[in-house]
Amino acid sequence: MKLSYRVNEYVSCEQFIALLNASGLGERRPVDDKQCIEGMLNNSNLIIAAWHDEQLVGIARSVTDFHYACYLSDLAVHKNYQHLGLGKTLQNLTQQKLGPNCKIILLAAPDANSYYQKLGFTSHPRCWVLERNKRIKE
Questions:
Q1: Which of 40, 48, 95, 127 has its CA 20 to 30 A from that of 7?
Q2: Averaged pLDDT score across all residues of the chain
Q3: pLDDT above 90: percentage of residues in the chain
């Protein structure tokens, strides 16, 4: 199987949604909100995509300053391509694009929590999330 990896090349909204659904990540992403998905893609400043021919089979989508912090917003691998090292490769390629002192930060899906520990990530107890439908209290 010949895979190619592309950095910051165009990924369509439809390809991204199909991958999110095929990876299992679609249940935690706004796949029914095309405007939001388009914004997610258009405002990411580092996207590493894995392709099998012209099918998107993996993605690492990040927002970063390239020097201090990189928020890895989505790491998705199509279920038919999982356990082949694609996720690890996508993360390694992401890290290669960052400065030498830039840390990768992410929120793990519940089923993936132990995966990141095996790769060398450390858990951080002080993560806070304000959901889309909530407002900051006065």
A1: 127
A2: 94
A3: 80
**How far, in Å, CA of 123 to CA of 94, rounded?**
19
Who contacts 29 (Cβ-Cβ below 8 Å, separation ≥6)? 20, 37, 74
Sorted by where each starts, the structural domains of the chain and their CATH numbers stand as 3-119 (3.40.630.30)
Q: What is the pTM of this model?
A: 0.92
Structure tokens at 112: 């993936």
Asked if residues 45 and 60 have their Cβ atoms less than 8 Å apart, the reply is no
Q: Which of 13, 98, 93, 108 is nearest to 49 (CA)?
A: 93
Each residue's pLDDT tens digit, 80-100: 999 999 999 999 999 999 999
Rg (CA), the chain: 15
